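Lay summary. Proteins are chains of building blocks that fold into shapes, and those shapes determine what they do. In this project we predict the shape from the chain. Here is one chain we studied, written as its sequence of building blocks.
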Amino acid sequence: MPQPSIKERQRQVREDAILEAAHALLGQQGYAEMSMDNLAAQLGISKATLYQHFESKEDVAVHVVVRLMQRGEALLAEATVGQPAIGVLECWLRRGLELRMATPSQGMSALPHNITQHPRYQQQNAQMHAQVSALIERAKAEGDADPAVATAIAARMMMRLFRGDYDDFVENKQYTREELSAALVALVMNGLRARSIER
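And here is the predicted shape, written in a compact code that computers can read:
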């Protein structure tokens, strides 16, 4: 497989920097308030340079959200090696929430319709939902998850945890990020586990 050229690598580095900055701005300001102007200003580049990489604000936002879901998939793959399915799900939720809470995210909790209905978002969301659903079914088969739990609903609820707005709990010093993550994981996993399993 041919190695990317220096120019291609530079382009990828710049795109990664744009998406990191956009992620931070979306978390702080939300989609409606974020603009290509303030994104360019944040990066110290011209708006024309921004448009060389992305067609529009919507395009940027879709790339940000899809990349976050791909990172979630990568975490799921890492956790899968040599573990029962219930442990994989718990590890994925904990690590994913810890990463999510490391960045302000109030603005990410309510994504607009044009983002959630975008074909790239829909495809990535369906792919991840299928992976999580398969793990829940495996946990049921292994006797660790309650067979009465509705798999599709449980999978969606787990994925939606990453879009919740919990920052005020940390800002008001009610909970640390670690305590908040542990509480959310416990709530979900205790609902999923088979009733006969020792908690």
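What the prediction tells us: The chain has a mean pLDDT of 88.
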